Amino acid sequence: MTPPPHTPVLIAGGGPVGLTLSLLLTHHGVDHLLVEARSTTSHHPKARGISARSMEIFRRLGLEGAIRQAGLPADQVFFYRGRDLTDPDFVRTGLPEQPGAEANTPTPGLICSQDALEPLLLDRARPHTRFGTRLLSYRQDTDGIRAVLETDGSRSAVHADWLVGCDGAAGTVRTAAGIGLEGPTGLGRYLSIRFEAPLGPVVADRASASYFLTPPGRGGFLAVDNDRHWIYQYPLDPAAEPPSDLAALIRTAAGLPGLDVTVHDTMTWRMDARLATAYRHSRVLLAGDAAHVIPPTGGHGMNTGIGDADNLAWRLAYVTTGRAPESLLDGYDAERRPLARQVIDISTANAAQRSGYRIDDELLLTADYHSPTPLDLTGYHPSGRPGTRLPHLPLTPGASTLDLVGPDFTLFTPTAVPAPVRVIATDSWPPAARARWHELLGPATTLLVRPDGHIAWRTEEPPTALPDVLGRTPVRHTLPGLRR
Question: Which residues pair with 135 in a beta bridge?
Fold first, then answer.
């Protein structure tokens, strides 16, 4: 299909981050266009872990059930260590116990590989997407972005008010904007092999999500999609050529000389730890791997990018509809870059831990946009402070306080008052939820919550005073910058 001549937002890149941003923009009522050079979604598993915070975002989009159905069963999320798959002295561990985890989120993370996730996202985002369409070039002028697209050798021009690069570290958008990447490269080099083999019966007594192969074994790790479909991440020396007999390599790694192996495809990748020097240049913004390249040790790369999309989407919605000035987008860089810096440092430290590292499903729940150190490595502690995510409290079976958030600002206050935002009267909640809210926040607390679930403002003033408080300056100008 021919792209439209104009779109408020042009997204370059249709991986998990770009597709999530597309769905969130639709959720906020923003017209947009996503272009992706690939003709189809990824066939390679790549990222596999979807964290609790990402699942909360997908829950808001109505995708939680479909993603859980596509992912691995929760009782299979173990991590295996042994020289090969037949090692009698193997060690198998589960996700570390996180006290009170069931009280922290309505939707814990899971294993759902990228090749299974992307089609689910694309199915919903398809009306706004053009796969098989490449962003060739663009230029900025006083009136927006002038982009040149190419589809099957045919070129077309699109004018956009804003351009978001979700096209990876080597993508067109960041490079053309003149935004640099800083940080080390070559922390590791790997050959990723997607293959088919009847390994299900072999690991029946030690079924796990990932199998880390330890010395004196071949090394690397095996990851399961189902009983027959697997991926092997084999460590390569920096200058080494990949082995020529991949089936033999897999048999040796598995410890099964007679294993029937069918190799489907391969890719070589390098572990880097890099951060963009800026997330915005005028009308160009970056998200996902275009903004940060995070070592996969810990599983935070894709999830950090999904958080980027959540932070950026509501800002673009307010700016493109004239409800907030363009300066609202400055907060995207101010909030997300420090968080990515910390995630990169955590993941890089994980990569150096040869004895293993912590898999922290709830790390990104601890993001605090008003703190100089936005992540809490001691675990998630609900507080109700401005900058933190609204605490999850069960209201009725299957319903959470998080389900009341968005797509615009929401005011949580003891009793209903007239206000220019959606109002939730917390004193009307079921007794258990109301008691827990009072325990965490106090009975007189009022919170103004952003569309992405983070708290913008807090007060203990009586509800009758709130219309005056909110009305002292026009809401369209005060909402983005409220602090208390």
Answer: 149
Q: What's the confidence (pLDDT) of residue 103?
A: 82
Residue 374 in contact with residue 326, Cβ under 8 Å? no
Q: Which phi-psi region, left, alpha or beta, contains residue 132 (left: φ > 0; alpha: ψ -120 to 50)?
A: left
pTM of the model: 0.93
Peptide bond into 407 cis (omega under 30): yes
Going along 171-327, which residue ranges are E strands?
181-182, 188-196, 210-213, 221-224, 229-235, 262-271, 274-276, 280-281, 284-286, 292-293
Give 384: exposed, middle or buried? Use CB within 10 Å, 0-12, 13-18, 19+: middle
DSSP assignment, residue 241?
Answer: P
Pairing of strands 91-94, 78-82: antiparallel
Confirm if 293 and 343 have CB atoms less than 8 A apart: no
* R_g (Cα) of the chain, nearest Å: 23
Neighbouring residues of 65: CB distance < 8 A, sequence distance ≥ 6: none
Q: Give the residues of the chain that fall short of pLDDT 50.
A: 96, 98-99, 101, 473-478, 480-484
Q: How far is CA 330 from each of CA 140, 281, 284, rounded to the nearest angstrom?
A: 18, 10, 12
Which neighbouring-strand residues pair with 50?
110
Whether 81 and 90 have beta carbons less than 8 Å apart is answered as yes
- Cβ-proximal residues to 305 (8 Å cutoff; 6+ apart), any chain: 16, 17, 20, 166, 287, 288, 289, 291, 292
Phi, psi of 7 (to 5 degrees): -145, 140
Separation of alpha carbons 173 and 14, rounded Å = 13
d(CA 234, CA 230): 13
Tens-digit pLDDT profile for residues 73-123? 776 778 899 999 999 999 988 764 544 546 899 999 999 989 999 999 999
d(CA 352, CA 349): 5
Angstrom distances, CA of residue 239 to CA of 66, 244, 249: 42, 15, 18
- Chain center to CA of 9: 20
Tell me phi and psi for residue 320, to 5 degrees: -70, -25
- 421-431: pLDDT as tens digits: 899 999 999 99
- 270 token code pair: 């390098």
What pLDDT is attached to residue 426?
95
The whole-angstrom separation of Cα 138 and Cα 256 is 52
So what's the pLDDT on residue 395? 95
Distance separating alpha carbons of residues 68 and 62, to the nearest angstrom: 12
CA 323 to chain centre: 26
Quick one: pLDDT at residue 462? 76
Element (H, E) at 136: strand 133-141
Could you tell me how far CA 21 lies from the centroid of its own chain?
Answer: 10
- How many CB atoms sit inside 10 A of residue 182's CB? 10
Quick check: helix, strand or coil at residue 430?
Answer: coil
